[in-house]
Request: fold
Amino acid sequence: MPGRGWLIVFEGIDGTGKSTQCQEMESYLKNIKIPVALFREPTDGIWGQKIRKILAVGRGDVTREEELSWFIKDRQEDVKKNLLPALNLNKVVLLDRYYYSTAAYQGALGLDPKEILRENKNFAPVPDRTYIFKAPTEECLSRIESSRESHSSFEKLDYLNQVQKIFDSFDENHIKRIISSGTIKDIHTQLCEDVHQLIGI
Ligand code: TYD
Reply:
Protein backbone atom coordinates (compact mmCIF):
# COMPACT_ATOMS: atom_id res chain seq x y z
CA MET A 1 0.00 0.00 0.00
CA PRO A 2 1.58 3.34 -0.98
CA GLY A 3 2.52 5.65 1.88
CA ARG A 4 2.31 2.85 4.37
CA GLY A 5 4.31 -0.26 5.15
CA TRP A 6 3.02 -3.81 5.24
CA LEU A 7 1.54 -5.62 8.18
CA ILE A 8 2.30 -9.33 8.10
CA VAL A 9 0.81 -11.46 10.86
CA PHE A 10 1.84 -14.94 12.05
CA GLU A 11 -0.95 -16.89 13.74
CA GLY A 12 -1.70 -20.38 14.95
CA ILE A 13 -1.55 -22.47 18.08
CA ASP A 14 1.77 -22.81 19.94
CA GLY A 15 4.10 -25.52 18.69
CA THR A 16 3.37 -24.95 14.98
CA GLY A 17 6.67 -23.13 14.42
CA LYS A 18 5.13 -19.72 13.71
CA SER A 19 7.49 -17.78 16.01
CA THR A 20 10.53 -19.44 14.41
CA GLN A 21 9.26 -18.48 10.94
CA CYS A 22 8.56 -14.94 12.08
CA GLN A 23 12.15 -14.57 13.33
CA GLU A 24 13.60 -16.20 10.20
CA MET A 25 11.66 -13.72 8.08
CA GLU A 26 13.02 -10.80 10.13
CA SER A 27 16.63 -11.96 9.54
CA TYR A 28 15.97 -12.56 5.85
CA LEU A 29 14.48 -9.11 5.26
CA LYS A 30 17.26 -7.44 7.25
CA ASN A 31 19.85 -9.25 5.13
CA ILE A 32 18.34 -7.94 1.92
CA LYS A 33 18.10 -4.45 3.46
CA ILE A 34 14.33 -4.18 3.65
CA PRO A 35 13.31 -2.01 6.65
CA VAL A 36 11.59 -4.40 9.05
CA ALA A 37 10.19 -4.39 12.59
CA LEU A 38 9.12 -7.41 14.61
CA PHE A 39 6.60 -7.24 17.47
CA ARG A 40 4.67 -9.82 19.42
CA GLU A 41 1.46 -9.99 21.38
CA PRO A 42 0.93 -10.18 24.26
CA THR A 43 3.49 -7.35 24.54
CA ASP A 44 5.77 -6.54 27.47
CA GLY A 45 3.57 -3.55 28.41
CA ILE A 46 1.50 -3.33 31.60
CA TRP A 47 -1.46 -5.28 30.20
CA GLY A 48 0.83 -7.81 28.59
CA GLN A 49 2.49 -8.39 31.96
CA LYS A 50 -0.87 -9.02 33.62
CA ILE A 51 -1.67 -11.49 30.84
CA ARG A 52 1.68 -13.32 31.22
CA LYS A 53 0.89 -13.73 34.91
CA ILE A 54 -2.34 -15.62 34.20
CA LEU A 55 -0.51 -17.62 31.54
CA ALA A 56 1.98 -18.69 34.20
CA VAL A 57 -0.28 -19.24 37.22
CA GLY A 58 -3.67 -19.93 35.65
CA ARG A 59 -6.77 -17.81 35.26
CA GLY A 60 -7.81 -18.00 38.93
CA ASP A 61 -10.87 -15.81 39.43
CA VAL A 62 -10.19 -13.62 36.38
CA THR A 63 -13.36 -13.78 34.27
CA ARG A 64 -13.22 -14.46 30.53
CA GLU A 65 -14.57 -10.96 29.89
CA GLU A 66 -11.77 -9.45 31.98
CA GLU A 67 -9.20 -11.61 30.20
CA LEU A 68 -10.54 -10.44 26.83
CA SER A 69 -10.39 -6.80 27.92
CA TRP A 70 -6.71 -7.19 28.90
CA PHE A 71 -5.80 -8.57 25.47
CA ILE A 72 -7.67 -5.69 23.84
CA LYS A 73 -6.02 -3.03 26.01
CA ASP A 74 -2.64 -4.61 25.33
CA ARG A 75 -3.35 -4.48 21.58
CA GLN A 76 -4.56 -0.85 21.73
CA GLU A 77 -1.21 0.05 23.27
CA ASP A 78 0.68 -2.02 20.68
CA VAL A 79 -1.16 -0.40 17.74
CA LYS A 80 -0.46 3.11 19.01
CA LYS A 81 3.08 2.66 20.30
CA ASN A 82 4.54 0.12 17.87
CA LEU A 83 2.48 -0.89 14.84
CA LEU A 84 1.25 2.43 13.42
CA PRO A 85 4.60 4.26 13.91
CA ALA A 86 6.48 1.44 12.12
CA LEU A 87 3.89 1.27 9.32
CA ASN A 88 4.11 5.05 8.91
CA LEU A 89 7.86 4.64 8.40
CA ASN A 90 6.98 2.27 5.51
CA LYS A 91 8.46 -0.73 7.29
CA VAL A 92 7.50 -4.35 6.84
CA VAL A 93 5.95 -5.07 10.22
CA LEU A 94 6.07 -8.72 11.30
CA LEU A 95 3.71 -9.53 14.13
CA ASP A 96 3.76 -12.74 16.16
CA ARG A 97 0.04 -13.09 17.07
CA TYR A 98 -2.76 -10.56 16.58
CA TYR A 99 -6.54 -10.36 16.84
CA TYR A 100 -7.16 -13.74 15.26
CA SER A 101 -5.55 -15.21 18.39
CA THR A 102 -7.99 -13.27 20.54
CA ALA A 103 -10.97 -14.44 18.49
CA ALA A 104 -9.70 -18.05 18.62
CA TYR A 105 -8.40 -18.33 22.21
CA GLN A 106 -10.96 -16.14 23.98
CA GLY A 107 -13.63 -17.41 21.57
CA ALA A 108 -12.79 -20.93 22.74
CA LEU A 109 -13.77 -19.79 26.25
CA GLY A 110 -17.31 -19.29 24.95
CA LEU A 111 -17.16 -15.66 23.80
CA ASP A 112 -18.32 -14.81 20.27
CA PRO A 113 -15.34 -14.86 17.82
CA LYS A 114 -17.16 -12.61 15.31
CA GLU A 115 -17.91 -10.02 17.95
CA ILE A 116 -14.26 -10.16 19.12
CA LEU A 117 -13.05 -9.53 15.55
CA ARG A 118 -15.50 -6.67 15.14
CA GLU A 119 -14.35 -4.99 18.35
CA ASN A 120 -10.70 -5.31 17.33
CA LYS A 121 -11.21 -4.03 13.80
CA ASN A 122 -12.59 -0.80 15.31
CA PHE A 123 -9.11 0.26 16.29
CA ALA A 124 -6.53 -2.17 14.86
CA PRO A 125 -5.32 -2.11 11.22
CA VAL A 126 -6.28 -5.03 8.98
CA PRO A 127 -3.18 -7.07 8.04
CA ASP A 128 -1.91 -7.13 4.45
CA ARG A 129 -1.11 -10.81 4.94
CA THR A 130 -1.94 -13.29 7.69
CA TYR A 131 -0.30 -16.70 7.85
CA ILE A 132 -2.24 -19.18 9.94
CA PHE A 133 0.02 -22.10 10.81
CA LYS A 134 -1.53 -25.48 11.34
CA ALA A 135 -0.26 -28.81 12.66
CA PRO A 136 -2.05 -31.65 14.49
CA THR A 137 -2.91 -30.39 17.98
CA GLU A 138 -1.40 -33.47 19.69
CA GLU A 139 1.92 -32.84 17.94
CA CYS A 140 1.89 -29.19 18.96
CA LEU A 141 1.21 -30.12 22.57
CA SER A 142 4.05 -32.64 22.69
CA ARG A 143 6.42 -30.04 21.21
CA ILE A 144 5.32 -27.53 23.84
CA GLU A 145 5.75 -30.15 26.58
CA SER A 146 9.24 -31.11 25.50
CA SER A 147 10.39 -27.49 25.28
CA ARG A 148 8.94 -26.16 28.53
CA GLU A 149 8.94 -27.20 32.16
CA SER A 150 5.24 -26.63 32.64
CA HIS A 151 2.44 -25.58 30.40
CA SER A 152 -0.38 -23.19 31.05
CA SER A 153 -4.13 -23.51 31.12
CA PHE A 154 -3.99 -22.14 27.56
CA GLU A 155 -2.34 -25.37 26.47
CA LYS A 156 -4.79 -28.20 27.19
CA LEU A 157 -5.85 -30.52 24.37
CA ASP A 158 -9.63 -29.95 24.37
CA TYR A 159 -9.20 -26.23 24.62
CA LEU A 160 -6.60 -26.16 21.82
CA ASN A 161 -8.85 -28.27 19.56
CA GLN A 162 -11.54 -25.66 20.02
CA VAL A 163 -9.03 -22.86 19.34
CA GLN A 164 -7.95 -24.68 16.17
CA LYS A 165 -11.55 -24.99 15.02
CA ILE A 166 -12.03 -21.24 15.30
CA PHE A 167 -8.73 -20.56 13.45
CA ASP A 168 -10.07 -22.87 10.69
CA SER A 169 -13.25 -20.80 10.39
CA PHE A 170 -11.59 -17.50 9.43
CA ASP A 171 -12.09 -16.59 5.82
CA GLU A 172 -10.56 -13.34 4.57
CA ASN A 173 -8.60 -12.56 1.39
CA HIS A 174 -5.31 -11.86 3.13
CA ILE A 175 -5.27 -15.17 5.04
CA LYS A 176 -2.98 -17.98 3.87
CA ARG A 177 -2.84 -21.33 5.60
CA ILE A 178 0.57 -22.85 6.23
CA ILE A 179 0.67 -26.56 6.90
CA SER A 180 3.61 -27.03 9.26
CA SER A 181 4.68 -30.44 8.00
CA GLY A 182 7.62 -29.29 5.84
CA THR A 183 11.11 -28.45 7.09
CA ILE A 184 11.79 -25.03 8.60
CA LYS A 185 13.78 -24.19 5.46
CA ASP A 186 11.02 -25.26 3.02
CA ILE A 187 8.37 -23.26 4.83
CA HIS A 188 10.71 -20.26 5.02
CA THR A 189 11.27 -20.43 1.24
CA GLN A 190 7.53 -20.62 0.63
CA LEU A 191 6.93 -17.58 2.86
CA CYS A 192 9.77 -15.59 1.22
CA GLU A 193 8.23 -16.10 -2.22
CA ASP A 194 4.91 -14.87 -0.94
CA VAL A 195 6.38 -11.84 0.83
CA HIS A 196 8.31 -10.83 -2.31
CA GLN A 197 5.07 -10.93 -4.27
CA LEU A 198 3.19 -9.02 -1.61
CA ILE A 199 5.65 -6.15 -1.25
CA GLY A 200 6.55 -6.14 -4.95
CA ILE A 201 10.33 -6.60 -4.82
P1 TYD B 1 2.80 -16.57 22.92
O1 TYD B 1 3.55 -15.32 23.22
O2 TYD B 1 2.74 -16.98 21.51
O3 TYD B 1 3.34 -17.76 23.78
P2 TYD B 1 4.76 -17.96 24.48
O4 TYD B 1 5.24 -16.62 24.98
O5 TYD B 1 4.39 -18.90 25.58
O6 TYD B 1 5.59 -18.56 23.42
O7 TYD B 1 1.32 -16.41 23.44
C1 TYD B 1 0.99 -16.60 24.77
C2 TYD B 1 -0.38 -17.19 24.89
O8 TYD B 1 -1.38 -16.16 24.82
C3 TYD B 1 -0.73 -18.22 23.84
O9 TYD B 1 -1.07 -19.42 24.50
C4 TYD B 1 -1.95 -17.64 23.16
C5 TYD B 1 -2.50 -16.65 24.12
N1 TYD B 1 -3.21 -15.50 23.50
C6 TYD B 1 -4.58 -15.35 23.71
O10 TYD B 1 -5.19 -16.19 24.40
N2 TYD B 1 -5.22 -14.29 23.16
C7 TYD B 1 -4.58 -13.35 22.42
O11 TYD B 1 -5.20 -12.38 21.95
C8 TYD B 1 -3.16 -13.50 22.20
C9 TYD B 1 -2.40 -12.48 21.39
C10 TYD B 1 -2.51 -14.60 22.76
Observations:
- Residues 14, 40-42, 55, 71, 97, 101-102, 105-106, 154 surround thymidine-5'-diphosphate (CB under 6 Å).
- The beta strands are 6-12, 36-40, 92-96, 129-134, 175-179.
